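hiii so um. not sure if this is the right channel but i have a protein structure encoded as tokens and i wanna go backwards to a sequence. like what aa goes where. can anyone help
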């Protein structure tokens, strides 16, 4: 399992961490003011359609799910994340 410092962009910027393994991409935060569904957000790898990137001061990844949902994350080590994500997808 690999971990990354990140922020979820959902009704503001919410600091937390992303955990990546072969089964899922999981976002976790301990902030109690965040909606419960985002405190431990699990995105199964089999349900991820694609990830695109934009650079807005920091690299922003948009994760598109097969069900139409989208999640935006500021990931502070883009190159390491991309490398690890590609390893788990192959």
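sure thing!! here u go:
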């Amino acid at each position: 399992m690999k971990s990354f410092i990140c922020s979820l962009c959902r009704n503001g910027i919410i600091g937390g961490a992303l955990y990546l393994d072969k089964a899922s991409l999981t976002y976790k935060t301990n902030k109690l003011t965040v909606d419960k569904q985002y405190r431990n957000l699990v995105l199964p790898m089999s349900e991820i359609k694609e990830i695109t990137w934009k650079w807005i001061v920091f690299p922003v990844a948009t994760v598109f799910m097969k069900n139409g949902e989208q999640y935006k994350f500021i990931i502070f080590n883009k190159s390491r994340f991309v490398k690890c994500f590609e390893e788990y997808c192959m």
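oh and The first helix runs from residue 36 to 39.
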